[in-house]
Amino acid sequence: MKNIIRKIILSLTRQNIIWFFIKPLIKICKSFEFYRKKNEYAKAIINLNNYFDNLLIKSGPFKGLKYPDFISFGSALYPKLLGTYESELFPLINKLKLTEDYHSIINIGSAEGYYSVGFAIMFKNAIVYAYDINPKYESIITDFAKKNKVNNRLHFILNTNIETFEKLDEKNRSLIFCDCEGCEKQLFDKNNLNKFSNSDLIIETHDLAVHGVTNYLLDLFKDTHGVEIFYVKSKAEKMKIHEKEISNLSSFERDICIEEGRAHSLAWLFFKTKKYAS
Question: Fewer beta carbons within 10 angstroms: which end of the chain, N or C?
Answer without folding.
Answer: C
